[in-house]
């Protein structure tokens, strides 16, 4: 019996339903753990060209949705470009450039950190977190990795004359504008509406539609809001994530590529030609996420040492196994 993952070719065979094993943890030759999920690619027209698992699987995009949220804010009047616009899409590491950038956005609205409704947090990056603690830092809303997005939301509200007190309410004009943009670029209304970890409305969509949305934004015509957004992310990847993060390294290695991960192991990448890839690891583990996406990029013809790095399984501090991809 063949137990290998089934890759569905949309023009040849029916798509696989459900999730599939995407990666295995092998210790001393024995499979110790398995990670199931869905990974897929779409072409510039938005058609699914290959998938492992069901491309119609509905997911919460989590922070992979931030480029869409930022596009909605631009359409609503957000007056940002460049590094500060990139920060509006960020799940930032909490580095000084990020904190300074958030304060700069808030100042444009005549606000300070007290206006942020992000939960008090420590910096996301563990090394930055450690340095922050050594310096006597405490949990603060500005350190939460979504504070750039929230500062941009507040600036949008200030620009439009909307209330900044209830900007996270789904009924607020800002969130209505973002939902309308989400519905347009994904091709349908949210499948489920919840609340993200940062407190903002969280909109669910089929994974294939998340990939289509990012691919469509990458293809935005010159001078459009989408083109401004993509240009900012490409030019300032250190503001999209952080200087020690995998997304930053990937975007630096392949200029023109746009990458955005989200909590619970969601990841989307848009290539310069408008094709895109998206994945969701079912158990939410980050361990296999980058390796799975890297394999998808390899299938698209991108190849570099960066793309072949995988977590190593250790025993007594020495390598005794590996994370093994199954496709």
Question: What this model shows, in words?
Answer:
With about 325 residues, the chain is an alpha+beta fold. It has a domain at about 60-75 and about 170-310. The chain has 11 helices and 13 strands. The strands form 3 sheets. Strands 1, 2, 3, 4, 9, 10, 11, 12 and 13 form a 9-stranded antiparallel beta sheet that branches. A two-stranded antiparallel sheet has the order 5-8. A two-stranded antiparallel sheet has the order 6-7. Helix 1 (about 65-75) crosses helix 6 and helix 2 (about 80-90) packs across helix 8. It is globular. About 50% of the residues are buried.
Ends apart, CA distance between termini:
17 Å
Shape descriptor: globular
Q: How many separate helices? A: 11
**Number of extended strands:** 13
Please render the helix and strand layout as text:
Elements: E1 7-8, E2 20-27, E3 30-42, E4 48-52, E5 58-59, H1 66-76, H2 82-88, H3 96-108, H4 126-134, H5 147-160, H6 173-186, E6 193-195, E7 201-203, E8 205-206, H7 207-218, H8 225-235, H9 237-240, H10 246-253, E9 258-262, E10 266-270, E11 276-281, H11 289-299, E12 312-315, E13 318-325
Antiparallel strand pairs: 1-4, 2-3, 2-13, 3-4, 3-11, 5-8, 6-7, 9-10, 10-11, 12-13
Characteristics of this structure?
nine-stranded antiparallel sheet, 20% strand, alpha+beta, 327 residues, 13 strands, two-stranded antiparallel ribbon, globular
